[in-house]
Design goal:
There is one protein chain. By secondary structure, the protein is of the alpha/beta class. Helix content is 35%, strand content 16%. The chain folds into 2 domains: 182 residues, Rossmann fold (3-Layer(aba) Sandwich); 174 residues, 3-Layer(aba) Sandwich (Rossmann fold). The protein contains 14 helices and 15 strands. The strands form 2 sheets. The protein has an 8-stranded mixed β-sheet, with helices on both faces. It has a 7-stranded mixed β-sheet with strand order 9-8-7-10-11-13-12, with helices on both faces. A hairpin with a 2-residue loop joins β14 and β15. α5 packs parallel to α6 and α10 crosses α11. The longest helix has 22 residues. The chain is globular. The two termini are 23 Å apart.
Length: 374
Amino acid sequence: MKVGVVKEIKADEYRVALTPAGARELVQRGHDVLVETGAGGGSAFADEAYSAVGGTLGSAADVWEDAELLLKVKEPLPPEYPLLREGQVLFTYLHLAANEELTRALAESGAACVAYETVETDNHALPLLAPMSEIAGRLAAQAGAYFLEKPLGGRGLLLGGVPGVAPGRVLVIGGGAVGYNAAVIALGLGANVTILERSADRMRYLDEILSGRVSLVMSSTLQIEESAVEADVVIGAVLIPGAVAPKLITREMVGAMKDGSVLCDVAIDQGGCAETSHPTTHSDPTYVVDGVTHYCVANMPGAVPITSTKALTNVTLPYVEAMAELGLAEAVAHDRALARGVNVLDGKVTYEAVAEAHGLDFHPLEDVLPLSPV
């Protein structure tokens, strides 16, 4: 199969969908790997590294036109919509529940669109989202500490404090992969950390692996309201797979927060968990609402592309190999986790949460692409 890798055109996105090591694995299996010239530069992978392992370099137009399986990191942007075609498989992060225009464009293209973030195992793990969630959580804690500095508009507080001066307070809403990793870094900085979580079992697990070093509290509207007032940094780390993030932080809650405090909304890819959140970029990462600095960068892991690209290829490559070897239909028939990643196929929305978010008709994948028993 012809597997294509294009350069990301989203603002401040430096990741690439495949490392040279991943390209070598595909070439050794007999596949053609087409790489846009300069695609890996932002992640410190030179063109020569791809050509040395058997990849073929070409223009963006060539890769889009020739690739049967197209790999990206972020969703296609409007200039890329016309490049998609019927029969092509797109494999990337899509976050369609937060973007109706993109959803409709993908449906109209006729391409099969598989979203990294909704590939889900039977035990509800999200293997392709997990590494980026880990990175985003860790970056959120770093960003919170950084933007607390006075010259950057913050309160002027050192998050870890010093002997004789109390540390800052970090509130993490959601105890999943993002929340856990945010807590790990915040603890490492010396902060006082509270995690709000809805699952009692998850809280028991976090209490065990974090050795009781964080406060774990059952999440509720009242608890968020009370905790946000005391926090110096609030990290929104909630996720409903494939669906729009719930608005757990209201405008009134933001207005009651400390002047110069920081809100990092890691859920912004799915619309954000605060009513005051809207996407920002690494070039212009923050804005202020009611005295609260909002950090809502929609591609946070793009800030550390060397780490992110390697971590992404580690988890996506087995699925890429399966689709390249078997084709989409047979690959999803053999792997229900991959089947759950199919969001758009033959002009139809095949992921229920996406259809519901935009009021579109939902077509179960089994009706569009009958699956053989595994």
